[in-house]
Write a structure and sequence with these properties.
By secondary structure, the chain is mainly alpha-helical. The chain is 64% helix and 9% strand. A three-stranded mixed β-sheet has the order 1-2-3. Helix 1 packs antiparallel against helix 2, helix 2 packs antiparallel against helix 3 and helix 3 packs antiparallel against helix 4.
């Protein structure tokens, strides 16, 4: 089955969305592990002598939600890629209007999840950085990565990881919006426009024969 150019662009976007989702899930999971399982988003940091410590973190389920949603969407993109590659090479499978409507619904749900995840990362990281800066121990949140944390080994590259996860989420959101637009265009192209019957069409002749009878031909 030859894929249309819209479907080919859609597959490229799915590949990029897979990479973005996998990056968000991996970096956030690594950051949470560096805080001994506590979620640093919206966390509160305190200064203990010359070292920082996360005195209060968010519920671990918050990080689980962001990482899980990003990971599931990445898995969904990967499965779609494998399916369409298999279909285009071996089977003669086409996505009808019902399949397009289902894809539209899933893309809309994906946009909602990615938007929520990106906002959680944006405001959660900002709250943690404001708490760190309020301790007057550093001039920026990125510099706080160089300060010792308690217990030792905590918060390894936490700001870089959270910043990369946030940026990947925003890029992922743009990718899913473009995917939604492409799917809408494909759905519109599947719809055959209505054209009224005109004189001279075979259907016109058959309809008029039924209503007024066949026309007599004169020698």
């Amino acid at each position: 089955m030859a894929l249309s150019w819209l479907q080919r662009i859609e597959l490229v976007l799915f590949a990029a969305a897979f990479l973005c989702g996998a990056l968000v899930a991996a970096t956030l999971t690594r950051t949470q592990a560096s805080f001994s399982g506590s979620c640093p988003l919206y966390g509160v940091a305190t200064l203990n002598h010359s070292s920082l410590a996360l005195s209060r973190g968010s519920a671990p389920s918050l990080c689980y939600f962001v990482a899980g949603a990003s990971g599931l969407l990445a898995l969904y993109c990967l499965l779609l890629l494998l399916f369409w590659v298999y279909s285009s090479c071996i089977e003669d499978s086409q996505r009808g209007r019902i399949g397009l409507r289902m894809a539209l619904a899933l893309s809309a749900a994906a946009i909602f999840l990615v938007l929520v995840s990106a906002c959680v990362l944006r405001f959660g990281t900002g709250a943690l950085c404001n708490s760190i800066l309020s301790q007057n121990s550093t001039i920026s949140c990125s510099e706080a990565q160089k300060i010792p944390w308690t217990p030792p080994g905590t918060a390894l590259h936490f700001y870089s990881n959270l910043h990369n996860a946030e940026n990947s989420s925003w890029v992922n959101l743009v990718l899913w919006c473009v995917v939604l637009v492409l799917q809408i265009l494909q759905l519109k192209s599947e719809t055959t426009p209505f054209r009224p019957l005109e004189r001279g069409d075979p259907e016109w002749s058959s309809e008029t024969d039924v209503l007024v009878g066949p026309r007599l031909s004169h020698p």
